[in-house]
Design goal:
By secondary structure, the protein is α/β, with parallel strands linked by helices. It has one domain: P-loop containing nucleotide triphosphate hydrolases (Rossmann fold, 3-Layer(aba) Sandwich). About 45% of the residues lie in helices and about 15% in strands. The chain contains six helices and five strands; from the N terminus they run βαβααβαβααβ. The protein has a five-stranded parallel beta sheet with strand order 2-3-1-4-5, with helices on both faces.
Amino acid sequence: MRKPGTLIFFCGKMGVGKSTKAISLAKEYNAILLSEDEWLEAVYPEEIKVFDDYIKYSARLKPLLKKHVQKLLNSGLSVVMDFPGNTPNQRAWFKEIFSEYEIPHKLYYLEASDQLCLKQIEQRRKINPSRVNFDTEKVFHQVNRYFQPPTEQEGFNIQIVRRDDI
């Protein structure tokens, strides 16, 4: 029987560097990288204007991907999912993916100050002008109202990465 790949996913405030870490880990693990932003843009172009739109379309996307990701993992490929696991409900979806087949996993929890996250969001807006309406301090605070760090009781293999202010 083939050894399954590892599912790698993330938790961290908006702007902490989850996507950057995902790219790095995908290279390190020679893994498939799946980006929620890329999928949402491809499947629902021009439909995400505000945070509530993101919530709506993200919820539609997840059932489509679950079995696909499980098949990749069960074929022996590791998968890095650049999808947020910032609430217990979001993390429960990842648990559904790996627990059905006892697939190894790692949850990378990236910690940083709000100041650093906001600085990085500002830089991201400059690099990617299409995000100028979403990558704002207002959205940062709106999104992070829901943020809940992972706990040991949730049963994840947690790797904590602390980002110091630059």
